[in-house]
Structures are given as C-alpha cells and as structure tokens.
Amino acid sequence: MSTNRFHKAAKDGLLEVLKEATKRDCNCRDEQGMTPTLYAAFHGNLEALRLLCGRGGDPDKADLFGNTALHLAAAQGHKHIVTFLINFGTNIYATDVDGRTAQELAGINNRDDILRFIDGVHAKLEATDKKKAKAMQEKAREDAKKRVKVRKCDK
Questions:
Q1: CB-CB contact of 41 with 73 (8 Å)
Q2: Which residues, at least 6 apart from 130, have a Cβ–Cβ distance to it below 8 Å?
Q3: pLDDT score at 3
Q4: How many CB atoms are closer than 10 A to CB 44?
Q5: Domain range 2-154, CATH architecture
Q6: Closest Cα to residue 10, out of 85, 95, 96, 27?
Q7: Which SMART domains does this UniProt record tie to the protein (predicted)?
Q8: Distance between CA atoms of 83 and 91, rounded to whole angstroms?
Q9: What values do phi and psi take at 31, rounded to 5?
Q10: How far apart are the first and last CA of the chain?
Q11: How many CB atoms lie within 10 A of CB 151?
C-alpha cells in the first residue's frame, strides 16, 4: 500500500520519497492512528517533519491515544522538534486520552529542558496574548471531546 511507503519514509527521513506525498498522504493514519507527520516528530526527523508540514501535514492530528506531534516529540526528548512545532503554531494545550499535555509528558519522561521550554512558552503566551491562549485551550477541549466520542464508537 502506498501510504505505508510514506510512513516508512517519515520514520527513516527519506526526503525524496516524502516530496511525492500529497496532503492526504501526510495525514493518512496507520493501525495505531499514526500519520507520516507524527512519525517524523516521534523519530526526531526535523527535515522530514518540515517537508510534511509544508505539504499539508497536520501536527495537531492525534494518534489513537490522543498524542499529537508535540506530545510525541516532548516524550521522546526531541527539543529541536518541539521548538519547530511550537514555532509552526501547534496547540500547546492539546491533551492525550489521559488528559495530559505535551508539557506533562515531558515531565513524566524526565525531559526537563523541554518541560522548562514549554513552560516558558506557556508563560509568554499567557502574558502577551491571553485571547490566543484561551482560543487554543478551547480548541484543545473540543478536540478532546471529539476524540472521546470517536473512541467510544470504535469499541
């Protein structure tokens, strides 16, 4: 199947293959709900992630456990990916199925540099743009509700 090709290319950082990916390919889910965009973040492949996001890959799309690209990168300790995703505009308030943010996953996984970095981003956003922070928090709540409904239908 051609989608597996893009999932594998994202894991391995094969940019030539990823250059052929359409927006749909970038966001296509495998059995775990992982997209090529999520795999690039998980494996710390910045160039692959940059390419996928540029081709329409959505880093806020979550896997079956509610992990966004930011969750995966924070848990894995890929600060360069976390930095890219935050600059890209990823929702720092998104929660997984257990209600945890990427910041909390960084803490659980002893990624103290990432924990402090996201903490600083939170503080800056809430100090300089309360409206944007509120909108992102609301979007994170809505996405979590939708995901819970979808998961219930799966059972």
A1: yes
A2: none
A3: 57
A4: 17
A5: Alpha Horseshoe (1.25)
A6: 27
A7: ANK (SM00248)
A8: 12
A9: -60, -30
A10: 26
A11: 13
